[in-house]
Amino acid sequence: MVLKNKREECYPEVWDVPISALPEIGPGREKKLNKMGIATVRDLLLYPPRRYEDRRNLIKIKEMEEGHKYTVLVSVERARQIYLRQGLSQARVLFRDDTSSVEGIFWGRAYLTRYLFQPGKKFFLYGTIEKVQSRLIMNNPEYEEYTQEEANIHTARLVPIYTMTEGLSLRSFRRWIYETLMNVVIVDPLEEKFISSRGLMSLPEAVKRLHFPEAIDDVEQARQRLAYDEILQIQKDWLTWKVNNIKDKSVCQHKTDGMILTTFRNQLPFVLTSAQNRVIDEILEDLSTPKQMLRLVQGDVGCGKTLVALHALCASVDSHYQSCLMTPTEILAEQHFLNLKKHLSSLPVRIELLTSSIRSAREIRKQIAHGEVDIVVGTHALIQESTLFKNLGLIVIDEQHRFGVMQREKLRMKGHAPDVLYLTATPIPRTLALTVYGGMDISVIDEMPPGRQPIKTYIIPEKKREGLIQFIIKQAQKGLATYWVCPSIEKSSHREDLKPLLTIYEKLHSNAFSTLRTDLLHGRLSFNEKAEVMSRFAQGEIDVLFSTTVIEVGVDVAHATNLVVENAECFGLAQLHQLRGRVGRGPYTSYCFLMSSTTNPVSKERLRILCTINNGFEIAEKDLQLRGHGEIGGFRQSGDTDLRFVDFTRDLPIIQQARNDAIQIFKS
């Protein structure tokens, strides 16, 4: 693998090369990777696996039992193409070892018989065994051609499993990482002697073992090195900011008793919690002083962080400064934009949305540069060179861990010492947060808004689906709405058991829910289409909203009291907790129904945790305790915590060491 248009040279140190430089990454794939927070080679190589599957144990076909997953080494006996109705195709391949045979069925991939599954070729297969009459079958197994020269990456090893976005193949993603690792030169910024004295792995080795460990112990060693680097960078970033801030006496000073903020506070239709008021006072105190603000606001799902940040944005408008709210994804940016428009609709505040998909981006940038826009909500588009502010005084960054240090610094440099407010979704113990973030001021929203009651959560097996459907119909008759979430938009050729959104919608819309008002919401809709659907849902014009995880954050509908999640075992605990936070926002009893018939004991235990715990941090701790029991755990995903690799239950020595080292490095 080499850089595009430079076929004779391999990668040098290319951490910050755009992901589009990889040979197979065109505009379409680049956009999908960007949605996963992957914009550079660094982002790709530091994207942590969600978990690992142990596919090392080779077994003979004769020893396999129905319903279990196995890895086998087999030869192709024969292969044929099957064409079904509606354009569907199959590759049906008969594999054999010296004990028996098994048939592999590859849905939608009849072409594999033409160039890959040739008689006599050897393959590793990994999949679940099914029995049809007397035949053994594997539906869509993982496959990999057996060669003695090349390493296996999909089978016969500890295999990384990543959280993917719709339209990207897990198999391709794994291969992109492998091939990039084979060609990229990762330079460790720390000396070998320095690293070894702290008992840490080198950076190149850590990145390699993160994705392709030889043993599960390798994963923990890799995690410790990457956790150390995360803390070290945060400390260096903070120390640099502190020095620059001390030198710069000319900072933004905001007015905190102006008309916009006062009117906004007076017209709120509900009473804020004491925790929200306390944090708002802390932020406004920062804004009113000639000292540059650098504050982290943390709190659980649904505690009202965005509403708190809105007070700061109003103060910035009153002070005739521009402000911006940066998010890692377009969907989150769109939802924040609509939320701000709703809350500030009666006030003379100009709000605009700026993402890579906005057709009028050039005109919006022109208006921002002329100072005609008060608040800009956007994604990475905010840090592009073409985005200029006339008078940027406040920066709010949601899910700040999704942005690199240099990205955050680029945004800060677009103003003259603007105040900075970070938001993070999962509470971190205050003592640890102070250790991690050094001198950064920290505010904790440790109280839920009134009316937020515990959500009753149940696991619903397939045999009880009909009863659930009848319950949802009765809820709709009472005027109470439902989110029905599916893991994918369309049928997946890799996971036959997944319930696709379009299939579930068509089936229920035309039959059981034919008397109800239903609609669809997913990432393929345009911004205006999504906004129109959500507006109708919020106004009570939709009884059941069928959706993907685009509703995970930022949606607030008081009469939405039911959440149904198909294939709940496919989602991480933190993501399920985020999804669950969409209901329970009104005075009604709310329910979360986790549709799952999984037999995996770890998956079943994770779902049971959600049925008994409503606190996000407790859920994360329980999740950590489960790792290593049957399924090889991976790393926290974005939104799960403010850091990808740091484990607050185990890493205090690493955190303290990295903090001390950062101070020494900075001094020298």
Question: Topology of this structure?
Answer:
Elements: H1 27-35, H2 41-45, E1 51-54, E2 69-83, E3 89-96, E4 101-107, H3 112-115, E5 122-132, E6 135-139, E7 142-145, E8 158-161, H4 170-183, H5 192-197, H6 203-211, H7 216-247, H8 259-266, H9 274-288, E9 294-299, H10 305-318, E10 322-326, H11 330-343, E11 351-354, H12 361-369, E12 375-378, E13 392-398, H13 405-412, E14 419-424, H14 430-437, E15 441-445, E16 456-460, H15 465-477, E17 481-485, H16 501-510, E18 518-521, H17 527-538, E19 544-547, E20 560-565, H18 573-580, E21 591-595, H19 601-612, H20 616-626, E22 632-633, H21 652-667
Parallel strand pairs: 4-6, 9-14, 9-15, 10-12, 10-13, 11-12, 13-14, 16-21, 17-19, 17-20, 18-19, 20-21
Antiparallel strand pairs: 1-8, 1-22, 2-3, 2-5, 3-4, 5-6, 5-7
Helix pairs in contact: 6-7, 7-21, 8-10, 9-10, 19-20
Describe this structure in words.
This protein is an alpha/beta fold. It has 21 helices and 22 strands. Strand 11 (351-354), helix 12 and strand 12 form a beta-alpha-beta unit. The longest helix has 32 residues, at 216-247. The two termini are 39 Å apart.
